[in-house]
Design goal:
Strand 4 (78-80) and strand 5 (83-87) form a beta hairpin. The longest helix is centred in the first third of the chain and has 28 residues, at 13-40. The protein starts with a strand and ends in a 7-residue tail after the last helix. With 104 residues, it is α+β, with helices and mostly antiparallel strands. The chain has four helices and five strands. The strands form two sheets. The chain has a three-stranded antiparallel β-sheet.
């Protein structure tokens, strides 16, 4: 087993490989987070069709809450097989109906 000098001791090649794989994994996770942040900046276009994931990011809620909104008839949707689609105009309508004026 080859050893590489690292700081005050030695690290095996296998340990270095493992660390590199971990770093690559972290880099991938960071890229996914960046993509999520960019997706969270979605501008709500009334003419666009949004996915469940888009709506979760737009509203900042969990998927279970979106399902509750659908099941209770609060959020209009279209369904094809196991996929749900939401028109931007329907999301805006939902937000308008869910809005309460400040009373203070």
């Amino acid at each position: 087993m080859q050893m590489s000098k690292y700081a005050e001791g030695y690290v095996s090649e296998q340990t270095l490989r493992t660390l590199l794989l971990e770093i690559k994994g972290l880099r991938n996770d960071l890229n996914e987070l960046r993509t999520g942040i960019e997706s969270a900046k979605i501008k709500l276009d009334p003419n666009y069709i949004y996915t469940n994931k888009d709506v979760r990011l737009i509203l900042g809620v969990d998927e279970r809450l979106i399902k509750k909104y659908r099941d209770n008839g609060f959020l209009t949707y279209h369904r094809q097989n196991d996929k749900y689609w939401y028109r931007g105009v329907d999301i805006l309508d939902f937000l308008k109906r869910s809005r309460y004026q400040a009373f203070a």
